[in-house]
Write a structure and sequence with these properties.
The structure is a single chain. By secondary structure, the chain is α/β, with parallel strands linked by helices. The protein has helices at 3-22, 25-34, 62-71, 90-95, 113-123, 142-147, 170-191, 207-213, 223-233, 254-274, 287-317, 327-349, 365-384, and strands at 49-55, 77-84, 103-108, 128-131, 137-138, 155-164, 203-206, 237-248. Strands 3-2-1-4-7-6-8-5 form an eight-stranded mixed sheet, sandwiched between helices. α4 links the parallel β2 and β3 (103-108). The radius of gyration is 22 Å and the shape is globular. The model is unreliable at 406-411 (pLDDT under 50).
């Protein structure tokens, strides 16, 4: 056995172990789907819901977002709009809704998304606080779907389901398929009480829980993730509700995707450091050991995979070694097949088999995975070097390619 082959197998082995652990997502998601409540419209109570929408330079998409929230069939609600010092016509759009019943409009000097969310919480009145980005579009039953998750007093927060709305280019189509996989993973994690993320684009928290743990931490790049970890630290469960759909834009170009994912990765690293005492600690229940596995998968595995890629290139250039017929190469093929199966099953669970018409884009999945590995390495370097935390806001396009959105919501 050559030195190249030995190194490659040592690098692939941890990836195989992590993949075997993560392969449990699929059967767990099937179990969660089988045990879902039969009526998607039933809610355990009729609480007053405050939908808080922070916005910075969102004039292109904000009107569509607010109209969809107001059109949601759940009536016991208010909409709190917070302008975070926008430079475009965001404030003018907000003011056009100011006279509507149940709409609260607030303006502040630019202080960041977390500060805008906290300002919205302070001006809200609901016992359930729901957060959505300014490009999000409700389905018509989004709020009722979200409230289904609060069927147990131990549930402190609920994560909704994202669906890309701009499907006009190759990259958003790939992200559409991967969004279904994300939903499948969240189903599985919620099933075993390990869900640790409430998406800032579609999430809800009990007001009494926010009063207990505090609002959003300002100055972070992943304020939604960090808040969720505090919810878990306080001993509450986090639920996932696939029926609580919010349609939103995803990056359509490489540069905006890179900047968004580096921001997400740095937000994860910041949260990991802040709550490092939770990792592996059984006093937090099953969440503690899960966070240790998750840290290995999110931080360590990408580094190993990038090193493995370098080794593979070295083997390809070395005439004395071969990439074929080695245990590492056979395991690599197995690992490539699992994501394909995951996409098919997750799209079926999400009731979105129609999105499989974009299945052809999976041929670029290896490239995407390599880029995402490089994203994490970049985020690690930036954190170690203490680079300033920049939001790098996604430029909105206002493109909508979805047809057949439930209940006639105009997108």
């Amino acid at each position: 056995m050559s030195g190249w082959t030995l190194v490659l197998q040592l690098l692939v082995l941890p990836a195989v172990v992590l993949s075997l652990v993560e392969s449990a997502y699929l059967p767990l998601a099937l179990v969660a789907h089988a045990h879902r409540p039969p009526d998607p419209l039933r809610v355990p109570a009729n609480p007053f819901v405050s939908v808080i929408v922070p916005a910075f330079d969102e004039g292109k998409v904000l009107r569509r977002c607010v109209e969809s929230i107001l059109a949601d069939r759940y009536l016991h609600k208010e909409v709190v709009l917070v302008d975070d010092g926008s430079r475009d016509d965001t404030w003018e759009v907000m003011q056009s809704f100011a006279g509507r019943p149940g709409v609260v409009v607030v303006s502040q000097a630019n202080a960041g998304k977390a500060a805008a969310l906290n300002r919205g919480i302070a001006r809200s009145h609901g016992s359930i606080l729901m957060f959505v980005d300014a490009d999000g579009v409700f389905s018509g039953w989004t709020i009722r779907g979200m409230l289904r998750g609060f069927d147990d007093p131990r549930v402190g927060a609920v994560c909704g389901n994202d669906a890309p709305v701009n499907l006009d280019r190759l990259q958003p189509r790939l992200l559409t398929l991967l969004t279904h996989v994300t939903a499948m993973v969240r189903r599985a994690l919620a099933q075993v009480n390990c869900l640790t993320i409430v998406s800032g684009n579609c999430g809800a928290v009990r007001r009494d829980v926010v009063d207990e743990i505090g609002g959003f931490t300002e100055g972070l790049l992943g304020e939604d993730l960090e808040l969720t970890w505090r919810v878990r630290r306080a001993g509450y469960r986090v639920s996932f509700q696939p029926e609580a759909i919010v349609y939103a834009e995803v990056p359509a170009g490489i540069r905006p995707l890179w900047r968004q994912r580096v921001r997400w990765a740095r937000g994860y690293l910041q949260t990991l450091w802040i709550h490092r005492d939770m990792i592996g600690r059984t006093r937090h229940g099953i969440v503690g050991p899960y966070l240790a596995v998750n840290a290995l998968s999110m931080v360590v595995a990408p580094v190993l995979q990038m090193v493995a890629l370098v080794v593979i290139v070295g083997m390809a250039l070395d005439d004395s070694t071969t990439l074929y017929g080695t245990p590492a190469s056979m395991l690599a093929w197995v690992l490539l097949l699992y994501p394909v199966l995951s996409v098919v099953v997750s799209a079926a669970l999400n009731g979105s088999l129609r999105d499989l018409r974009f299945f052809y884009v999976l041929v670029v999945m290896p490239v995407y995975s390599t880029v995402m590995n490089a994203v994490m390495i970049t985020a690690i370097v930036q954190q170690v070097r203490r680079r300033p935390s920049r939001w790098n806001k996604l430029e909105r396009t206002g493109v909508s390619s979805r047809t057949g959105i439930p209940d006639g919501v105009r997108v």
